[in-house]
């Protein structure tokens, strides 16, 4: 699938296998076909024999800042309104969301950090997840307050405007609050995720209820068709989650909640439960990410249970710049909370 960047360069997204285990060798780190200014496809990695003058146009370096105050959507919408629609009602909503978000949190108090998601068998990097951090509240509290104030869509857009450019050349996982599916921000054609030069995985949390289910399904399908975006069911095993959502939403990836992971090596019944959930996910064509791995024994049990991908303090803490992976994880050197 050819995807256009803001700079006129096209990137070809490699396909991913649908058999429950992602084809990492095909999806990560492979040369990408791009269109040169003359229209001739060339490799994203320049051949050594090519003179520098004939090499294709490179993407510009990502910005150094991870602060949400530098996001375009953090700026005042007056006097010119960037909303594509010129209807007064849409302009008013755009202005109101700007005013509301400054009541929820000051943009200068918000930043984006990244945590790697890796192959549990060889430690190979699969993707980075972008996580928002706030000086005065936890991420769930921040998004719930933004949802209540009517500005959760703008907050999500601000996160993507910072996280996507910083992730150039890498797959990225982006969190989406269910409330964003009922706002116009996510489907705007100028959203940064539609210009990313690699795969984009949208995480829909299962820890809060998914209201207006039919409309949400419609929006998610539109996103997948328009932008080659992959759906991730997040926090399975927490809050309002249930296995039926995997059948209804048809996610590419399912992330197991930390509540199912913690202490799994000490509870045989919990181990059997998680093994059964992983088998069901694989049968439905979803790859499983075990989230929140902090103990070496947890990692061993989850790998043997069939979880192909993992994420947690045992491998790397969230940070910026993007942290390196600790591999192999050493027994007896568990992560300290």
Polypeptide structure, described:
With 337 residues, the protein is α/β, with parallel strands linked by helices. The protein folds into 2 domains: 2-46, no CATH class; 68-311, Alpha-Beta Barrel (TIM Barrel), CATH 3.20.20. It contains 9 helices and 12 strands. It has helices at residues 24-27, 88-104, 139-149, 152-166, 213-227, 244-249, 258-261, 268-283, 296-305, and strands at 2-4, 10-12, 33-35, 41-43, 110-119, 125-134, 172-176, 200-205, 229-236, 253-256, 287-291, 309-311. An 8-stranded mixed beta barrel has the order 5-6-7-8-9-10-11-12, surrounded by 4 helices. The protein has a two-stranded antiparallel sheet with strand order 1-2. Helix 2 (88-104) runs antiparallel to helix 3. The protein is globular and about 55 Å long. The chain starts with a strand and ends in a 26-residue tail after the last strand.
Q: Widest sheet: strand order? A: 5-6-7-8-9-10-11-12
Oligomer: single chain
Shape: globular
Beta-strand percent range: 15-25%
**Strand elements, count:** 12
Share of helical residues: 25-40%
**The CATH architecture of the largest domain:** Alpha-Beta Barrel
Give the count of helical stretches.
Answer: 9
Distance between the termini: 41 Å
Mean pLDDT: 77
Biggest pleated-sheet summary: 8 strands, mixed, barrel
Named CATH topology of the largest domain: TIM Barrel
Query: CATH superfamily assignment of the largest domain?
Result: EAL domain
Low-confidence stretches: 1-62, 78-89
Number of domains: 2
What's the Cα radius of gyration?
20 Å
Name the structural class: alpha/beta
CATH class of the largest domain: Alpha Beta
Please write the string of helix (H) and strand (E) elements.
EEHEEHEEHHEEHEHEHHEHE
